[in-house]
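Recall that a protein's primary structure is simply its ordered list of amino acids. Everything else, from secondary elements to tertiary packing, is in principle encoded there. The following example makes that idea concrete.
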Amino acid sequence: MQQSSGWRGSADIWLQAAYENLIESGVDAVRIQPLAKQLKLSRTSFYWFFKDREELLSALLAQWREKNTGNLVKQAERYGESIIESVLNVFDCWLDQDLFDTHFEFAVRSWALQSNDVKAQISEADEIRLAALRSMFLRFGFEGEAADVRARTVYLTQIGYISMKSREDLAIRMKRIPEYVRIFTGKSPEQRDLLRFYARHNYTQEPYEK
């Protein structure tokens, strides 16, 4: 993909505009002429960076895979001294849009309702993410079926949040974190685990006490 700047814009500018339209209005809004008008660029400048609309859509999906699947896997594989710390590492994804873009996730899952190819990519991403979460539980001594069910519980709970477009005040969600940890791991979090997690997300309210 050719990179350039100036009056033609750049591949990143076109891709960002496509992302914004996908998030706001769905895949049908990701079309060359409306994007050109929005960016105040000529339609022909698009073709300096992308062969056609399909290549632009493929770039969007690549960005989604790299960010959401890539970061979730990295967080699941990140060092943790306990399963509690490792689960909280994964929870970082649900609270940090730089790690996991929930709006992007919803938009791509909605797009999959119109495209068998995107549906297949969603299924592949789900399996990759679940495998990473299973491996995380296996790493801490959970046996096969238990690791699988706990991984699914962690993952499908969050996908449910996304699919329902559920919104929680940060303070409310943070108060629920200890109970989520206990449900997902079977262990109660220590205050030091919670303090580290709260600090990462700039949450200063008094932490949970057992």
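The chain has nine helices and no strands. The chain has two domains: 1-50, 52-200.
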